[in-house]
Structures are given as C-alpha cells and as structure tokens.
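Cross-check.
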Amino acid sequence: GRSSSGTAGVPRNLFNKLFSSSANTGKYPIMAEEAAMSQKGHGTSEKPVMKDLRWNCDFDTADRICNFNRHYAEYAGYWQTTDFLKNLDNEEKPIK
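Predicted model, tokenized:
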C-alpha cells in the first residue's frame, strides 16, 4: 500500500492543507468531460500559461503540464527544485 507521507517526509496532503480552507468541501479529483481536453488554440487551452510563475517554477514545464499533457505531470520531486519550500513560512495560509 501507499504510505501517508510523500517525498522527504512531507505529508501527501500538504497541498490540501496549504491551499484549502475549511469552507472548501469539494471532492477531489474533479472530473470533467473528455471535451475539456480537446485541441484548442494552444494545446488543450487557448493560451500558454503566464510567464511570471510563482516560486520560480519553470515556464516550459508548467506549459507542458497544463496544455500538452494527458497522463502525467512533472517528474517526481520537481516541486522541491522550486522556491516553494523556501517561501512557505512567508505565505499567508491558505495559499491563494
């Protein structure tokens, strides 16, 4: 089975703890019709992701994941190469 902790001992539900409020009662994952992934102006979106990404995230990686990806995302541990953890203490919670 899977453990309840992720890479480097960070809880797997860290994302939900940081980005969700107590008012958020939605269920994840959010499922969409196949048409949501149809070809559009830029992959499966009308436009590329924005250039100035938070936490020093790589534009090309984000654009590939968001607009040209059907089955996986970034490589395991990619998020640890960003500035996310370095800036975590300075972020207002939940992170918006």
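The radius of gyration is 15 Å. Residues 59-67 form the longest helix (9 residues). Passed to J.P. for a second look.
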